[in-house]
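Example record

One chain of 449 residues, shown exactly as stored in the release files.
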Amino acid sequence: MRGLPRRRRRPPSHDRQVLRLAFLTGLPGVLLALLLLWTGAHSDKLRWTLTLLLGIAWLGFMVALRERIIRPLQTLSNLLAALREGDFSMRARGAGTDDALGLAFLEANVLADTLREQRIRALEATALLRRVMEEIDVAVFAFDEENRLRLVNRAAERLLGQPAVRLLGRTVAELGLEPVRGNGEGDESPHTIDHAFPGGSGRWEVRRAPFRQGGRPHELLVLADVSRVLREEERQAWQRLIRVLSHEINNSLAPIQSIAGTLQGMLGADPRPGDLDEDLRRGLAVIAGRSQALSRFMSSYARLARLPLPEREPLDVGAWVRRIASLETRLRVRIDPGPEVTIHADGDQLDQLLINLVRNATDAALETGGGVEVGWREDGGRLEVRVDDEGPGLSNTSNLFVPFFTTKPNGTGIGLALSRQIAEGHGGVLTLENREGARGVRARLVLPL
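Predicted structure tokens for this chain:
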């Protein structure tokens, strides 16, 4: 009938093609043998006997050829099916490099070994990841494309106050995480929020990250409690501050209290000592000196705590370095000139920073009779200013930038801490380290251009 589509003929199977080729391969020889047999002078019994034997041999050859070709393919197919099902224990016999079939079996066996090793590593990595997720004190949630929870760790269970079996499969809204997770794709991550959960309240750092599993989009939501960290840092900062203030105030009040008590006893003596006026002047001078020292200390601390934001203006680096170097009169500071560079910075703050570095370098150089050199260079969009001295070097660099820590007899311990604060306020870095291959210390200031 017209209009009906013709059914496409299915191609013959590989087994039938092998049989057909085996049949066609032996057909000419069999026909020739039969022709010679039946045209010759032979008895009918011999003819039929030889014809039957020839047919059986031909059929046996066809079946043997098929088995020789099909069986290895079936073995290889079974091996690949086992690999697909995750069974990596099967191996093909007859693997080797002598022929093409043995080489195919060899490659299949190598593939099975490789997949087995990769699966073991993947299982170990997965077990480690699960262990880490269970032990970390950070709440981890994973949502699918329908905003349903698919993964949760112990910290998240404690945070929501429910076990995982009750949480998995629930939506963001049902879990009460919409205020934390946000609604849009443009939500900034990470960000910090204050929120109360059934398992605790405080300040949380929220991080969101997309990932794919099984070809489908998922989202990872991580909540970290920063309240405890902030409280601990605040407590340690107060402890350090109290220790420093207590130390300095006690150092000043102890001699004041001692001298005041001595003077009070001298005033109450009867008769009064003849050198009372001189003792009073010396005692009051000590009290005034310690009071001034305590006042300078508190002023230095207030200066460190109230450093204003930098007011940026164009600053010629060469003129700046030469001007600060000329302020040092105790020895001549050498200049290693660099390129002509202009930066936008607070000139007054950078003056104070470089003055502190040059003064410290000069103090160190005077101990050994060495020199001081200041130079600058441009490196990858950054300005690097260095101050080298030929002093004794640093024996301990761990406390250099700790406020009020000093190794100088009359030092305040403010200069380096203030200098680093100025550098960081300009987006830069200040470091001090012993020079390599030379005596002394190198102070390196790196500022962005």
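Notes: The chain has a mean pLDDT of 78.
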